[in-house]
Amino acid sequence: MLSFVALLSSASAEEGMWLPEQIPGMAAALAAQGLGLDAARLADPTGDPLGAVVSMGGCTASFLSAEGLMGTNGHCVASYLEYASDKDHPYARDGYVASDRSKELWAGPSARVWVTEKIEDVTTTITAKFKKKMGDTQRQDAIEAASKALVAVCETTPNRRCAVVPFYDGREYRLITRLEIRDLRVSYVPPESIYAFGGDEDNWMWPRQCGDFALIRAYVAPDGTPAAHADTNVPYKPPRHLRVQPAGARSGDFVMIAGYPGSTFRYRTALEAEHAVSVRYPEGLTLLGALSGTAKTHARKDPDAAARLQQSLFNWANTRKSYEGMLANFVASDIVARKKTLEGELDAWTASDRGRTAKYAAAIAELRTVLAKDLSTHIRDRLTSGLMFTGRLLGVAATSYRWASERERADVARDAGFQDRDLADVQDRFRQLERSLHPVSDRDLFKVILGMTQELPSDQRITPIDTWLASAGGIEPGLDTLYASTALFDTGARLKLLQTSRAELEASTDPWVRLAVSLETWQRGVRSTDKAENGALARLRPAYMDALRELRAGQFYPDANGTLRLSFGHVEGYSPKEGVVYTATTSLAGLARKAGPAPFDAPSWLLERAKSVQHDVPVNFLSTLDNTGGSSGSPTLNAKGEVVGFVFDRNWDAVAADWIYDPATTRSIHADVRYLLWLLGETAGAQPLVAELVGK
After folding, report:
1. Catalytic pick from 55, 75, 187, 241?
2. Which of 222, 292, 342, 494 has the smallest CB count inside 10 Å?
3. Contact yes or no for 650/657 (Cβ under 8 A)
């Protein structure tokens, strides 16, 4: 069993999602690994190559040409195809290739990419607002007020989206400035049977043969400034773009990724790990299984439902399988026991020195108390969020009512997400429902969540839901009343609701609005409690992180938090168990051998083309790179910074790498750029895109 110090200080060279600012301090180690360019170049978020890498919110993309063409994963743009599809054009299933730029498909009103322009340390500005005798709610208020003030100044520059982000669990803060591009269009996505070949069965597994690619293009106004979608817009000309290397990567090659990984939990406590394996993941599996089963039933019956539910089905299936892998990995790696043992060593280290005891012991003990209270409402809180997501119109009504309440305050005093800067995004989400809302399936998905709320223990009940169901006479009569009210099915009505006053909403007879008002009134109290807990965590987690950092010598990367990061490694297979060895690459020939009934139903034309290939086409490869959700679509770069692939998954034996990294088994899975170029040139007839990518 690893000791605590060993866990923290003997990580492999491949471990870590590093901040750009940390890379110069790693120059010698990276050169020894095989990096072929000046490490200082990787410290500049606006330089080459990092300036070409952009956030999509839940995925990563990168500019691959001077004409705004970007590469990412097919699964990252499924919602774009969902928006563009109709019964006569099932792009979400069949994929799409634009014969020329005029035929590129609009990705919809809520599609965005964000280009990082500046990262500034604002820790002093935030922490200067803290007072010695400040309460936890006041501390959280101070963090939010200082953050909003910084963002307000930052966003005086047009078309910028700024955010203050905590690092090292609140020990440090950065102000991040990003250019927001709002007109995205689809240039190429292969059919779902190619980009999701193997479906849920192969998800998180190796070997894989997925062409998980997409090419999208950013458009701006004729003067080069970001603008809403318009026919007069022109391709964006990024200051940086990456070079595609048609030769790809070979086994043993040095590779790196730059992207926007979402969340990891490497420094979370034993208590949080135990909760994850006993509550978070098991209960999540129950919920996701019920939602997926209901959605699949509707998708099988109705092609329109299938198109509108595709993205949700993918997300639920992906999360469900990751939870299954988490539980398997937690058991196989004995993560909870290891965390408890290691935390015991931390406590002993803290107690062995009077200065450390005074500095850390009380804070760590209080942290565990606050976390226990916070985690106790996890299931209730998850179901409350689920009510808004599955009952789409309830989410619309609740959002509108909260906006009405927040508008009564000065903009700077409003809660985050409800300031003037946020209104356009909310309006775009309301518009997006035109193409994703399916009332019949929505009703049954909402029913799933409502049923689960009735199984909550007495001290965790969602009171307004209980009251509403009692007055309605039960779940079925309540749903009948809600879905008989169709006014909010109309986009114009949803947008009008968003501008309605609080008094008018409170007087409304619309059943969606009435339920939303009662639920939002209850949630105000919940948010008040949450604010105090968040303030306490903002005070206590930094002390816990300080103890870890004091214990560890050398570089110390922060957990992933959706900000720009780099990871380094090599193209390399692995052995999951004795007698089993996985090679690092798969090929088109391997895809043809695996092809068969769904989910391995590769298109017949692909299999025919595969027979005539003289030199086998690499499809996927493994690397020792560190990644997590949000890294999907990140460009895989070789030692010179050239694109050789795109990250799209992690392997089954390392699903729990979000918690603990194991260098022997943690692998990233990449789509090989040679497969993309072959698909474009040999099957899609998209030679202009090939020429744009390779500069010919």
Report:
1. 75
2. 222
3. yes
